[in-house]
Design brief:
Blueprint: H1 5-17, H2 20-27, H3 31-45, E1 50-52, E2 57-59, H4 61-87, E3 94-99, H5 105-118, E4 123-128, H6 132-139, E5 145-149, E6 158-174, H7 187-190, E7 195-198, E8 218-221, H8 224-232, E9 237-241, H9 242-248, E10 253-255, E11 263-272, H10 279-289
Parallel strand pairs: 3-4, 3-5, 7-8, 7-9
Antiparallel strand pairs: 1-2, 5-11, 6-9, 6-10, 6-11
Helix pairs in contact: 1-2, 1-3, 1-4, 2-3, 4-10
Protein name: LysR family transcriptional regulator
GO molecular function, one term: transcription cis-regulatory region binding
Keywords: DNA-binding, Transcription, Transcription regulation
């Protein structure tokens, strides 16, 4: 059996997009090349991976099973490349991190001190963004690493690893908000007041049946710090990282008591499979995901 990295990437992209043509565009190849590659994989493995419909590909049951192995293999290859980068001499000149407020401030400060000590001459750049905006910056090659609330799935070009702790989220309103009069808040109570939420929303651990599916009124903003300010000014209620509230709220908001909250949210670090990580980025990635850290 001789399956190349390119063959596995073709399989993963075709499965993700449901189209040979979309996979071809993503990989910079012709549609016939992708189609022929998938056909060769099926011959090599003696299994049908896709049901070829008129408009869309659908994974067969064996195809769904093998997709997991293909993703694991690509992840292993990615880890090998990262480790090789840490052994090489070609340190990158610049490292860009896109950071979510779900990442704990104390951890961020500790990692920055370590980065400064290990790579004192490295140019470092940091953005703050959330959810889909983090993924856009990674996909565009604008950032090397990104941190965000964990998503149930990512595109085929995004690699990810789970951080070894959770971020705690609570529901907050201003001190003078009417909801503060309730000892325990129900989902239907929230539905009567404006919801404050991120404007770049993708599915995450914050999705919850205890929240109203449709709010009659909603304001949105691209980051949690602005959501906190809106909540503190009394414009509505918001789900916010408790670490951010503790650092910046200065007693201006009240945490609501509701069944299922506060909620523990996983945090992922993400990077692009299309852009190899340099030694400093590979080191920082390993440091972020280590379970035993001082």
């Amino acid at each position: 059996m001789n399956l190349s990295i390119e063959a596995l990437e073709s399989f993963v992209h075709a499965a993700s997009s449901g189209s040979f043509s979309a996979a071809a565009r993503a990989l910079g190849k012709s549609q016939s090349t992708i189609s022929e590659t998938i056909a060769r994989i099926e011959i090599e493995l003696d299994v049908e991976l896709f049901v070829r419909g008129a408009r869309q590909l659908t994974l067969t049951e064996p195809g769904r099973s093998l997709l997991g192995y293909a993703l694991e293999t690509l992840s292993a290859i990615d880890r090998l490349k990262r480790h090789a980068a840490t052994l090489g001499r070609g340190q990158e000149a610049k490292l860009t991190l896109v950071l979510s407020d779900t990442y704990q401030q104390s951890q961020y400060e500790a990692r920055l001190h370590e980065l400064d000590q290990r790579y004192p001459d490295l140019e470092f750049e940091c953005f703050f963004a959330e959810q889909a905006d983090v993924l856009d910056l990674i996909n565009q090659g604008r950032a090397n690493l990104g941190l965000l609330a964990a998503q149930p799935e990512y595109g085929p070009d995004i690699a990810h690893s789970r951080l070894p702790y959770y971020s705690s989220f609570g529901l907050f309103v201003s001190r003078g908000h009417a909801l503060t009069q309730k000892a325990v808040v129900e989902p239907q109570d929230l539905a009567h007041y404006r919801m404050l939420r991120l404007s770049s929303v993708v599915s995450s651990d914050l999705d919850d049946a205890t929240l109203p599916a449709h709010s009659t009124r909603c304001w949105s903003t691209p980051d949690y710090l602005l959501l906190l300010e809106m909540a503190a000014l009394g414009f509505g209620w918001a789900a916010l990282p408790k670490g951010l509230v503790e650092s910046h709220a200065q007693g201006r908001v009240h945490e609501l008591v509701m069944n299922g909250w506060p909620k523990q949210v996983s945090v992922d670090v993400v990077w692009s499979r299309k852009q190899p990580l340099g030694p400093a980025a590979a080191w920082l990635l390993e440091r972020l995901t280590q379970t035993n850290r001082s």
